Amino acid sequence: MIRTKQPVSFLDGFDPKRGVITQKGHELEGKSIANEIVELPYSVGSTVGTYKIFESVRYGKAPRAFILQKPDPIILPSMLVGIQVKIKGKKKVRKKIYIEEIKGIDNKLLAYLKREAELANAEKLIKIDSAQVAGVSYKTCGDGGLEFVKKMIERKLKVRVMTTLNPAGMDLEKWEEMKIPERFAERQLELINYFKMLGIEPTCTCTPYLIGNCPRFGSHIAWAESSAVCFANSCLGCKTNREGSAKSLVSALTGLTPYYGLHKQEERNPSIEIDVQTKLRNVSDFSTLGFFIGKVCGDKIPIIKGVKKISIEGMKSLCAASAASGAVSLLHIENITPEIKLKKVKPKINEKFSFGKNELKKVYDELNSTEKVDLIAIGCPHASINEVREVAMLLKNRKLKNVDLWICTSREIKKICERKGFVKKIEKSGGMVVADTCMVVSPIEEMGYRYVATNSCKAAKYLPSFCKQKVFFSDIKNIINKFSI
Ligand code: F3S
Question: What atom in ligand 1 is closest to the CA of residue 441?
């Protein structure tokens, strides 16, 4: 039996081929968990971690069982591939679980949802209005994820609610221009085709709320992209747990999720206060605040004070970073986010932290590891129209200096930016607007890149550990000025 008090980030901190924890600085770093019973509090980082666990089953290197401190929708679906999951200290009490909809629901998926409900003490399975499915890039889901999705087709299933997809591992139309390896492209197109067969539109974006998957205030949803989960809970006032990649697909195919965690209003109260004592000047500054919050909050809910104004771009970066360095799925900003303004939540503060100039600088210092850059990558989470416009304006009459530039966004946003002439301006300076994918989930390490400049803490966190890159982290203006003439 292996025990740890530290949460594990399975996407970039676990090698499924060897069954070894690779998370830098983790007390289990270098240790094999293959065929072991592993006791851990919960998981952090990307929600695609589930498929890394699935992958370890294929290599015979999976743990035998997990014992968790509390239900974690990223680890719980391990039960779908035969790994036992228990909650520490929970006695077996089988109670009747009420189900809001039963007609036509697949038996195996229903059995999984009931088991999740049982472990989480949820008395019912509720209907959801929307799903966002993660684990869409072949790089993140691997053959473990691909096989799982294929099995859903063999079961002749179709999604039952509005469902959108996270970014794929390449631009689905311009992958050759991006120099994506052919074998990777083949597997990626196969996977996208499977999703289409399940009735899912290949939207391939982590900002579904910018292209029409924008559920109303109070809706119950099952979203898996961790940045979008935090955005939906915090900004839209929707209710979702931080679902794992496989779990979000199960919910999309059944239209159901167990009623626990952030679905319950009483579980949405903040317990940590963050006092911002420095001016946040741009999106990357908001991202550093998020990175700090994720580290001090883990999976708890903060209330942020001292922020007077924040743009949608600042908000999506703040949410993405706090979900990447920790597992924050909901944050409130005094006088800004809807649930706190409408007095739907009651702060019950038991810890306080200040975020000043020193804390801001510390994050910039921690994430910077190079001055040399061969790729500038903007758009983590996927860029809005405003962000594409900003880059186009900054590049006006300038040329990139021996670097490639990707602005990562959704195909829908790209189309609008094409009509507005922003894409042409960026291309004229030597850059590209890349749709359907991003710098982290595309195989950039196989494409020869080693040094990436970004304005996103989430990208800066995953690029070294998941893509073998060194990072130059700064704001867009500084990056463009430094690497263009
Ligand atoms: Fe989106 Fe990729 Fe960042 S999926 S949040 S752009 S790591």
Answer: 2
Architecture (CATH level 2) of domain 2-103: 3-Layer(bba) Sandwich (3.50)
Which residue's CA lies nearest to atom 7 of ligand 1? 440
The number of helices, as runs of H, and strands, as runs of E, in the chain is: 16, 21
On whether the CB atoms of residues 343 and 309 are closer than 8 A, the answer is no
- Determine contact, residues 262/281, Cβ cutoff 8 Å: no
Where along the chain do its domains lie?
Answer: 2-103, 125-263, 268-365, 368-482
Q: Encode pLDDT of 100-132 as tens digits.
A: 888 889 999 999 999 999 999 999 999 999 999
Burial of 260 (0-12, 13-18, 19+ CB in 10 A): buried
Residue with the nearest Cα to atom 3 of ligand 1? 380
Residue 485 pLDDT level (bands cut at 50, 70, 90): very high
Has residue 292 got a pLDDT over 90? yes
CB-ligand 1 contact for 461 (6 Å cutoff): no
For residue 446, the CA-to-ligand 1 centroid distance in Å is 18
Assign domain 125-263 to its CATH superfamily.
Answer: Aconitase, domain 3 (3.30.499.10)
Q: Is the CB of 139 under 6 A from ligand 1?
A: no
Ligand 1: does its nearest atom lie under 6 Å from the Cβ of 408? yes
Task: Give the Å distance between the CA of 320 and the centre of ligand 1.
Answer: 8
Backbone torsions φ then ψ of 359, nearest 5 degrees: -65, -40
421 vs 47, more confident = 421
399 phi, psi to nearest 5 deg? -125, 145
Calculate how far, in angstroms, residue 41's C-alpha sits from the geometric centre of ligand 1. Answer: 25
Query: Sorting pLDDT into bands at 50, 70 and 90, what band is 44?
Result: confident
Please report, for residues 271, 373, 388, the alpha-carbon distance to residue 476 in angstroms, rounded to integers and kept in the order given.
33, 14, 11
The CB of 377 under 6 Å from ligand 1? The reply is no
Distance 227 CA to ligand 1 centre (A): 8
| Nearest protein Cα to ligand 1, atom 6 | 380
Find out whether the beta carbon of 459 lies less than 6 Å from any atom of ligand 1: yes
Ligand 1, from 48, 207, 458, 471: best to mutate by most atoms within 8 Å of Cβ? 458
Mean pLDDT across 143-151: 94
Third-level CATH fold of 268-365: Rossmann fold (3.40.50)
Per-residue pLDDT of 193-243, as tens digits, reads 999 999 998 999 999 999 999 999 999 999 999 999 999 999 999 999 999
The reply to whether 125-263 and 368-482 are identical in fold is: yes
Distance of CA 409 to the CA centre of its chain: 15
Kindly indicate whether the domain formed by 368-482 is annotated with CATH number 3.40.50.300.
no
> One-letter amino acid identity for 363?
V
